[in-house]
Design brief:
Four copies of one chain form a homotetramer. Chain A is α/β, with parallel strands linked by helices and 322 residues long. The first copy, chain A, has two domains: 142 residues, NAD(P)-binding Rossmann-like Domain (Rossmann fold, 3-Layer(aba) Sandwich); 160 residues, Dihydrodipicolinate Reductase, domain 2, CATH 3.30.360.10. Chain A is built from nine helices and 14 strands. The two termini of chain A are 34 Å apart. Chains A and C meet through α1 of A and α1 of C.
């Protein structure tokens, strides 16, 4: 059994991790740290876990008792944590913040998108888990980059559920405001663009065409709906073959022959992709659950790879479907 | 033109008042006071009014320039306001808080439910506008009380939209929590019970049978769905006639022959009632929009009555329907 | 491995069964019969299963190849099926329709509510799986009936998700109509009352006090929110002990100390109960997922019991939570 | 008073027309024709109008008794109607279908987008009311076309409410399917592209750059959220001035300085526009209510212009806001 510690246990991504790991056949949760909730039972905060676990939040982090820790704190906090704590040599780390996603001198974290970096992840000690938008968008574009086929501007629009914004109440997360509402934000300036461009450049060195991205707040809680398009000369069949070939052996990416809808992936670790060709453009629809494939499910997928487990262990999740 | 001042102009009920009064044919808005927003344009806060008005929030309250003020501050604040300010003798007041709804020594406010107290309202100077749950529930039960027909316990269940809880972000108003969710609260202990029992007792003196009330938070923004039932000996026809007779001449209460649904009243000042008889019970469905008939629309209805205008002036609102 | 056949494979309850059984550790799905979809892949209809299974719907029902069949056809169709087909002697049957829920001469089906009839279910060959409202309401009331404590009228109000009404498009399932809407239906006359009263009478023979039930269509897809109350003399502690004692050893029923909300159970087989005492009334909140504990999850729970498996096998489902 | 007849009275757009015209100060509804509902009261179908009108649907169309008719039938039916019926010479027609939107030999209808064709509309006898997507998208782009500034491909993405698809129940309008769901459809091939390109070409003759349009089904009932962008050389101020100048005197188009959200326009005839500049791109957000500015409200706006009334008559609608 892999022994697991969770740090920052009261937030959304920690809740999802717990929901997954409690029934993962090869993990044991040793501690769930939360400074604000220390001593309370985990199901006091993640109330849907009532009856599933009697775990309590801890104020201590017995790092030498675990094989892996998941960092589920706010952005900026992971960096602080890594700087302040001396980690046991054998301890693996999966960080769900954006602190270590961008390559730079001294950053030892591997960018944890298994469909891009599976082999590196298997031997990594530290993983920077991708952002939710970044996951859905990269999966839509990676096969093109791998074929050096991003030859013109890329146009991306993505609609996210409210859980992507975390659990702190704000004006735009107020039910009275958000219900039946839509709004764009950080137009062309979303912070995930950095990691997306980094990955595209990894596969297609020198990629520097325009990347146009309109993020939209949707009136749903879970899931990211990406529609993207760019110039593509070949016929649809060629594109489908390209995507099929790129994702062969990647169990969570599914190419749909029919135009899909977002709820097909909600509460699963899957990404569903769908292609259409119009004029000179290839249109790609990409669907993911922002809290699972876009966060905690992918973190578990990375853990599975790091410890040599079946990539799908613990991730055969029942879709919510409705 | 009736000259209007609004105090506490940044909240939900003030917003609804503005949406109604801006196009009321016989009112002119002289000032909208908000200490926190003084100097800002009204449409900065009530953004749907962009293009409808260039009004700005004021820090002053020129009470002698207006004929009527609407108090839209939090509960408790109206009492403070009345105590601190000397009101010009001719100024009328409509208070939307619960501060003056209950009769007690020295309380000069008339309880502003037109279907109960229309004649008193016409000559009143100060109106305590009813609570939202209280409005929907009283309209369901008043005809029975008027006939001394509340002879057994009354059972009431009501589902409210999120706007009933105001605009302050809280855990239970967070979209991620509330969307597709339901929860009961203040079971058998809701603060509106006082005014409901007061009105029932006004019509049926000595009413003291049990009043059982389960309030429920719904996953919608606007509207209160009340289902109520109590013992009733006669046939359905008798009940329908009783209700028809009681509400004759009250333009906003409509008796439906068909089982109705909540959206029939959303964005209107109407209350739709519907009756069924089963065994020895009369079941009453009562539908209202909590922000309009349950708050700001009723406040305008009261103003219309106080100034001798057509009761419906400014209140022929387009239903949202969908 | 238990070999499973599903009949009526295209509907909502069959879809949920598939979502659960595909990852059940001790079952193998041998066939999924659908006359209208024979030959199509299962994931063409249950599109969220794309990538999870390559199963196709069959036009044949090889009954002798399986250990158990689940009947997921419309109400009335199960009776027809049982009359027309000679079932192999060893074949077990779980029927999700209401055809065999009521006891009558010649009805060999055991009513499959494990918290009521677990021992009988273990040795049964044929199970009538309870209705969704019936499950949530019975779990709220059984401990009282078991103590002969239903001494006065029972008041029940339940709000159901849209999936309870099946997948046939109707006026009241149209998104434009139902979104943000609420409506009551079959007031005091819902067809599940029969099975509820049957079970209450099983534990409290002679129970004949009034049963008042208002079913409501909610604006959500999954889950039933029940609020019920009746006279109860003792203090809250006594009620909590009574419920705790009754459900001890029943792994899916959880008593909450805090006022819960519906989403705590969505996408799980759990029922969360919560009690409050007011005046002379005990109030019970009961939360279930209508498609899981109220249908397909309970069907699997029954199968587990019939075959001597762990009652929770395959039912450790990740809650959707949001 | 303008005397009005409505043909095809049972559908969504007719319902909206009725909701608006019943309280329009200068119109009188003479008949509402519906072959399927003849004899029934209008509020049996448009149930939110209960208490507002006692009108009944007619089986006859007394065309000589009215000044204007609104054609609210399905697409294709208006053409049939015009061919089959001889219209009185003085009768004006507003057609809400797409039958006459495209210019062609013999088409006498004026395309009824007041912000494009106001002068022509004033003297027109027959109006082809624009499509809902077409309205929102054109309002986003017309000022650029008017300045010959569409110099590169145009990228448009629009999310529509469910009422845009009409009231016939379908798989994608089923609440269980659509709630919390998102899906693209008719990608790059939506039927409204024709009228959009026609209008852009009217202002910028020879416009033939690519028009890329991804329509998306949202999980809301009312409103179209458009995000569009294209190359624009100048600074943001220049764009804002251009839009301000183009829409000066058009009372329903409002330029927002702040990033707006869809509900600002729901239940109104307004279009809210908002601009941002990034790199070489101008991004335009355009918000409209598909049933009002995108259909029946615009139809009334056209009627007002045709009869020389105030363009806003009857259209000072209370926003739903929440």
């Amino acid at each position: 059994m892999i022994k697991v510690g969770i740090i920052g246990g009261a937030g959304y991504t920690a809740g999802e991790l717990l929901r997954i790991l409690l029934y993962h056949p090869q993990t044991e949760i040793i501690f769930v740290h939360s400074s604000s909730n220390a001593g309370n039972t985990v199901s006091d905060v993640h109330v849907d876990l009532l009856g599933d676990t009697g775990l309590k939040f801890t104020s201590t982090m017995p790092l030498s008792d675990v094989d892996v820790i998941f960092l589920c704190m706010g952005h900026g906090k992971s960096k602080e944590f890594i700087e302040k704590n001396e980690l046991p040599g054998r301890l693996k780390v999966v960080d769900l913040s954006h602190d270590f996603r961008l390559k730079r001198e001294g950053n030892e974290f591997v960018y944890g998108l298994p469909e891009l970096n599976r082999e590196e992840i298997k031997t990594a000690k530290k993983i920077a888990n991708p952002g939710c938008f970044a996951t859905g968008i990269q999966l839509a574009l990676l096969p093109l980059a791998a074929g050096n086929l991003l030859v013109d501007e890329v146009h991306v629009q993505a609609i996210t559920g409210s859980t992507g914004a975390g659990q702190k109440p704000t004006e735009t997360s107020h039910f009275s405001w958000r219900n039946s509402n839509l709004s764009a934000y950080k137009i062309f300036e979303h912070q995930h663009q950095g990691e997306i461009l980094q990955s595209l450049g990894q596969l297609q060195p020198g990629f520097s065409n325009g990347f146009n991205f309109v993020p939209i707040r949707g009136t749903h809680t879970r899931g990211i709906f990406v529609s993207a398009y760019t110039k593509f000369e070949g016929p649809l069949e060629e594109a489908n073959e390209l995507y099929q070939a790129f994702y062969i052996g990647h169990p969570f990416v599914v190419l749909s022959e029919k135009n899909p809808s977002l709820k097909q992936v909600v509460n699963t670790n899957k990404a569903v992709l769908y292609l259409e060709k119009h004029h000179d453009k290839l249109v790609i629809i990409s669907l993911t659950d922002n809290l699972i494939k876009g966060a905690s499910g992918q973190a578990v997928q990375n853990m599975n790879l790091m410890f040599g487990l079946d990539e799908k262990a613990g991730l055969n999740l029942k879709p919510v479907a409705f």
